[in-house]
Amino acid sequence: NINKVEIVENNLFLITGHGESMIPTINKNSKLIFSENKNIRKGDIILFKNAQCVRSFDGFIVHRIVDISQDLEGIYYRTAGDNQKFKDSCKIRTNNIKGVLVGIIY
Q1: What is the pLDDT at residue 4?
Q2: How far apart are the first and last CA of the chain?
Q3: Contact (CB, 8 A) for 9 and 77
Q4: How far is residue 86 from each of residues 29, 60, 63, measured CA to CA in Å?
Q5: In this predicted structure, what is the pLDDT of residue 56?
Q6: Which end of the chain is flanked by fewer CB atoms within 10 Å, N or C?
Q7: Confidence (pTM)
Q8: In angstroms, rounded to a whole number, what is the distance separating the alpha carbons of residues 14 and 98?
Q9: Residues contacting residue 56 through CB under 8 Å, at least 6 positions apart
Q10: Local confidence pLDDT in tens for the 106 residues of the chain
């Protein structure tokens, strides 16, 4: 769960990790570097916003892409936290994605 986004460079930005859903990959207070590049693949960790996806949380979420599919509305992604047993319940569309993780500072 993310509240603050800092711009690092043109298409890169830095946030501080919160929560426990991505442990052990991402720890609380880890600095996360994201790229606005939308070339997304299975296994990528993304920063996305979708209020309907995770228990009515209205902020940004950092989870891993576990599946990529397509329906009548186009391509969508399924995500899950590395520390969770189940996939998130919603379809994430490209326009919900803020960035793809490119670095972690522990």
Answers
A1: 55
A2: 17
A3: no
A4: 24, 19, 12
A5: 44
A6: C
A7: 0.85
A8: 12
A9: none
A10: 455 555 556 788 888 888 899 999 999 889 999 999 778 999 999 999 876 665 545 578 999 999 999 999 999 999 999 999 999 888 999 999 999 999 999 8
For residue 63, the SS3 value is strand
Q: How far is CA 82 from CA 6, 10, 35, in A?
A: 24, 29, 20
Alpha carbons 101 and 106: distance in angstroms, whole number: 14
Long-range pairs of 41-47 with CB within 8 A, sequence gap ≥ 24: 41/65, 41/68, 42/66, 42/67, 42/68, 44/100, 44/101, 45/100, 45/101, 46/77, 46/79, 46/92, 46/97, 46/98, 46/99, 46/100, 46/101, 47/2, 47/15, 47/97, 47/98, 47/99, 47/100, 47/101
Tokens of 29: 């207070």
Q: How many residues are given for the chain?
A: 106
